Amino acid sequence: MYIYVYQKRRVRTLMDATDTRLCSQACAICLFGMAFTFPYAFHMHVAVDPTDGSRRCAETWDSVGRVVYGAFVGVTQFIIPFATIFLCYG
After folding, report:
1. d(Cα 49, Cα 84) in Å, to the nearest integer?
2. Domain housing 21
3. Geometric angle at alpha carbon 29, from 73 and 35, rounded to 5°
4. Average pLDDT, the chain
5. SS3 at position 18
């Protein structure tokens, strides 16, 4: 959606308020996504497998961190979408 502004026989296009809002929402979604996956990326390290000597990515969490992040992921990826579907179609 664009608004055309006629001024002295020149046409200029300006972004509509809706476009600005949608762009800011898309940026916010990307930032939230990066913030929510940062703990997972922070706890990934390259480890050498002792059986065959190959390098693999491994998670190194403390027990509380794993539980908290696992609960957060479970709620945001299962409970909230399921509740939304149930409220919309149930």
Report:
1. 42
2. 1-42
3. 50
4. 82
5. helix
At 31, the amino acid letter reads L
Query: Does position 10 have pLDDT exceeding 70, yes or no?
Result: no
How far is residue 89's CA from residue 55's CA, in Å, rounded to a whole number?
Answer: 47
- DSSP 3-state of 57: strand
Domain contains 64? no
> Does residue 24 lie within any of the structural domains?
yes
At residue 1, the pLDDT reads 45
Report yes or no on 16 lying in a domain. Answer: yes
The number of domains in the chain is 1
48 within a domain of the structure (yes/no) = no
Single pTM value for the model? 0.58
> Which residue type, as a one-letter code, is found at position 49?
D
- 44, two tokens: 């990934």
* Tens digits of residue pLDDT in 49-66: 888 989 988 888 888 988
Instruction: Estimate to the nearest angstrom the gap between the alpha carbon of 27 and the chain centroid.
Output: 10
